[in-house]
Structure formats: structure tokens, C-alpha cells
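Researcher: If convenient, please comment on what follows.
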Amino acid sequence: MSNAINQDQIASYQQNLTNKPQSKVLERAVTHQGILATSADFSSEANMDPVFSIDLDTGKVANQKQSGRCWMFAALNTMRHHMANLFDLKDFELSQNYEYFWDKFEKSNYFYENVIKTANLPLTDRKVNFLMTTPQQDGGQWDMLCAIVAKYGVVPASVMPETYNSNKSSELNDLLNRKLRKDATALRELVSQGSSDTDLSAAKDQMLNEIYRLLAYTLGEPVTEFDFEYRDADKNYHLDQNLTPQSFYQKYIGWDLSEYVSIINAPTADKPYNHTYTVEMLGNVVGGREVKHLNLAISDFKKAAIAQLKAGESVWFGCDVGKESERQKGIMDLDYYNPDDLFDIDFSLSKAQQLDYGQSLMTHAMVLTGVDLIDDQPTKWKVENSWGEKVGTKGFFVMSDAWLDQYCYQIVVNKKFLPEDIRKIQETEQPTVLAPWDPMGALA
């Protein structure tokens, strides 16, 4: 059935608008002020007062600037919180640029390997199109950071500071993706010619050599040995010499990263709760840690986060930050904007519907550093962002519990905060493999 819009319909719509009270007032307001400002309910600000019954002191926020490294900043922030408490450090940061270099390098190799695996498929194949659309990007997930740390360790920010290109990554990403696509044409051609594995490896080795040079010029070459010099919060001087990135991690952080696992809340029909999932073609380190998600109901999801916060440890989480949030004031609350009331239209979708129909997915990672519990139930959460101190309350946001229910998709917790039966599922179940474009493969 295909019906064109006719003039009688338009006349009916026009009359319907005319009959609505205050329609001209609303038209003037929205056309001059925009949808968000006109639909804002500022009573939300009172409800989102930044006071929490559990409130971890994590120091000053970091700033990812004009880059998409939120997942990396959030993960390193959870580690620096731990390190700052152990060694009485103030305003200390781990080097995001160091991890960024190795992530870019490893993602390039990961891309090459996937190009080779799919080289016999036509360019019109959806998997090939998926690869070529974005060969690599700044985003990532927790397990991908773990893979980098396990292979390369970590270093203080003072040892490998930020560069122009790490702070403002668009030029680097554009050029790197240009090279990766060029290399993809060469690798696919070699496969089509029946080249041996030896020839493919040699070609890829030359490509990686060029990638390393490109990254060294733009981000600086990673350190291999360094001294760690600092003053603690009491101004006592410390010097630790001849460290490597791996020895620094073991001495100053020392987490067994296998104990920290990804928990998701994806209430879609294709992902039953209490089961594990992975995503095809999602990763960075070939042969390294794979992405593995355990899908839990939102009540169990929040219980795990609260348990870790009660133990004094912050929580990495991923969400769709742009939905129904006020960036400058640092408020994430379903009641802040009310377009439904403004337009007299029901815009609501369930969380599952938003995932299934492309309305929402994980776009940003931050850190939970507090929660307000009333009768042991969460009402709002304290969020450490990585957008600097000029937004929110010196960089910290407030998230309503209802907003978390709707737009939070992933947390990372220590397995000890999960019930024993759930923990066994996470440890032993072989994950279901999801398509590369599944929303749970979104990079923060």
C-alpha cells in the first residue's frame, strides 16, 4: 500500500494545530529559543543537588580535550584513584598518551588481520563495508584497555605527556585511516593473487613499520625505561629509578585485571540475562584479551556497582551521554527536558526499543565515584567525567537513577562483588558471538 499525502489531510492537520491552545505562543518560544531551552524543567536542578551518602574523594578531573579517548581516561582514572590512595598522591595522572600510542598501533594490526580474513569477500559484503567504514578510531572498551596494559604496562603522565595530536586527534585519525584503507587494497590484492602467508606477513610488517613511524612523529615514541619522581600530599620527596612500564604497573597499581569484568544491561530479546556475549571483530590486540560481556538485569547491574562503591573503589561505566543531559550544568536526568509536554507528542521508547531501532547505544565512558542511597536504594549517582573542570561541578556530573536505568549500558566491577552463581557464569560460559555492528560493540 502506498498512499500520497493529499490536501484534505493537510487542511485537517492545519486545523488541528489551530485548535490547540497556546500553539502560537509555543511556536514563538521554540522558534526563537530552540527545543531544549524551551522544554527545560529547571526543578530538576534541585533534585540533582550534588550531595551523596557515598562519596569517594578522587581528586581533580582529567581532560580528554578534542579526542575520543573517554574509555581510556575513565579506565586510567579508576587506576589512579587506587594509586593515589595507596601512595598519598595529589592531582596525579597516568599517561593516556602512552596507552593511546599502543592502542593505535595494535588497532592497525588488528585491522590488517581482519582485512586478510575477509579478503575473499566482495567489497559489497557487509563485514568488509564495516571494516572500511572506520578502519580505526579513538574509541574503545574496557577489555581493550586491559589488553594494552597487559602487553605494554602503564607510565605516569610526566613520563609521556600529551601532544598536539593526542589532544586534538582528528588529523591523526584521518591520515591513519587513509593509510589503512590504502594498505587494505594491497593486502586484498595479494590474497587475490594467491600470495603465501610469508609474503602477506612481509607486506604487513612493512606496513606496521610505517605505522610506527607515523605514530612516533605524532604522539612521541613510547618510553621503555624511566625514573618516577614525585612529592606526596605531605610534600615528601620520592625517587624510584630504572622502572619499566610493566614494573611500574606491578609496583604502583598491581591489579589482577582478570578479576575486573564487563557487565552490561541490554534488555533486548536476542540477549537473555545471565549469559555472556562477545562481538565479532571487536578488539585491538591480536591474541590479547577478548571482549566479554555478562548481561544482567538492571537491579543486579546496580547492586554490583553499589557494592564496589561501598568498598571504596570507583566504577568504570559506559552510557549514551548525549541523551537527555545538560552538559554545562552536568546533569543527566530524564526530567530535565520535556519535549513530550512541549509538543504534546509521546517520544518515549523502552531501553530495548532504543537499542533495537538505533535510537541509542554507548557513546561515552566515565567513572562512578558516589551514590546517594535512601533506604538503601539509589536515587542519584556521582560521575567523574573527563571533560575538564569547566562543566558540571568542577567536572563532576550528577546522574539520576532513572537516567542510569535508561541510558547506562556497561559497568566494570571486580568479580568478588558478584553473587557466586553469576560469577561462575561469567568465568565458565562460552560467550555468544554477536555481529560486528551489534550495539553492544559500540566504542565509547
In short: The first strand starts at residue 54 and ends at 55. The chain is about 45% helix and 15% strand. The mean pLDDT is 97. The radius of gyration is 24 Å.
